[in-house]
Structure prediction request, 443 residues.
Amino acid sequence: AALIMLAGIYYGSQYGGSTTAILLNIPGETSSVVTAIDGYQMAKRGRGGVALFTAGMGSFFAGCVATLILAGFAAPLAEVAFKFGPAEYFSLMVLGLIGAVVLASGSLIKAVGMILLGLLLGLIGTDVNSGVARYSFDIPQLTDGIGFVSVAMGVFGFAEIMLNLEKKGAGESFLNKVTTLIPAWSDIKRMVPSILRGTTIGSLLGILPGGGAALAAFGAYTVEKKASKHSDEFGKGAIEGVAGPEAANNAAAQTSFIPLLTLGIPPNAVMALMVGAMTIHNIQPGPQVMTSNPTLFWGLIASMWIGNIMLILLNLPLIGIWVKLLKIPYRMLYPAILVFCCIGVYTVNNSIFDIFITASFGVIGYMFFKFGCEPAPLLLGFVLGPMMEENFRRALLLSRGDFTTFVTRPLSLSLLIAAALLLIIVTLPAIKKSREEVFTEEL
Prediction:
C-alpha cells in the first residue's frame, strides 16, 4: 500500500504541477516548467480553462497508453532479466550512469561530477565484505552509511524550499478569467496530434536511464515547436505547447517503472526513491518482484488505471478549489512543509542526527542549483554506487579475480559497448549542441 501511494503521488504530481504552472506561472513540478511557457500565456489571454482541460486530457490519454505498455512489456523483459549475472548487472548499471550523464540538463562535466560525488557518498559506511568502516570519520552514526531519505529530502526538499523563499512575491492569478474548460474544434484538431506525439516521446524516454518526465517534457516541446504549423505562437500561448509536454511527462512517469520492476535499475531520481521505499519494506527491486510479489506488481498496474481516472474526476471539476488552496501565503506554507520533512526524516531511524544531515544536504543542494548542477545524477550515483560495487566484487569472486569476465560474457560486453558508444556519440559537436538546445530553447 505504501509503494502504491508513493507511485500515485509521483504520476499524480505530473498533472498537479500543471495547474500552478498555467494559472500562477509557478511550476509545481520540474516537468511543468515547459507547460508554464505557453500555459501561462493562454491564461493571460483568458484561455486558462482550455489550457487546464488540454493538460488533463493529454495526461489521461498518455497515462492509459503507458499503463498498457507497462503491463504488456514488463513480463517479457523480466524473463530476460533472469539471465543476468553479477557481470551483466554491473555493466547495466554502468550504462545507466552513462545514460544519466547524457540525459542530464546542463554541462556534461557537471553531470559527471555529480555522478562521481554520488558514487563516493554511496561508499560511506561499513564494507560488506571486510566489516571495516569506510569514510565514517569516527562518527558512529555514519558507520551504517548516509541515509537515502536524508540525501533525497535535503537535496530536493530543503533546497527547493530555500530556492522558493528567494523569490519575491507569487505569480499573478488568473482565476477570475477561467471560464469554459471545453476547447473549440480548431483547438482539438491542433492538440490531438500533439498528444499522440507527446505520448510516444514520453513512453520511450521514460524507459531510458536518466530520462524521466522532465526530459520527456522538454523533448516534446522542442518537437512540437518544429512540427507545428503555428510555430510563431509558441511562447505566446500555443495549445500544442501544453498538450505535447503534458502527455509526454505523464507517459514517462509511468513507463519509468519498467526498468525498475524488470531490471531493478531506477531510471531517474524519483524511481531511486521507490528503490529506497522497496528496500525499507524488504522487497528487492528487479525481475523477482513479479514472481515473488505478483500482488504488488499488478496492484501497481491497477493503481495506475485508478489514478488516471481520479486525475480527471478530481482535477477538471474542482480546478477552482485547487487554485484557492494555492492562495495560502508562502510564509505559512513553507514552514509547514519543512516541519513535515523533518518529521519524515526523523521517523526513519528516530535520529536527530539524520535531520542535521538532511539540513546539510539542503545547503549543498541549494549550492548545486546556484552553480547550475543538476542533483538528480548525484542521487542515481548514490543509489547505484553500492549496487555496482557489490556486483563488481561478486563478479570478480565468481571469476577468481579475472577482470576479463566483463568482456567475455556476451551480454555484459554488449552493455559496455552500448555505454561507450553512447558516451562517444554525445560528445560529438553536433549532438552536443542539439542536446543543449533541448534544455535551453525558450527557457
About this structure: The chain has one domain: 2-440.
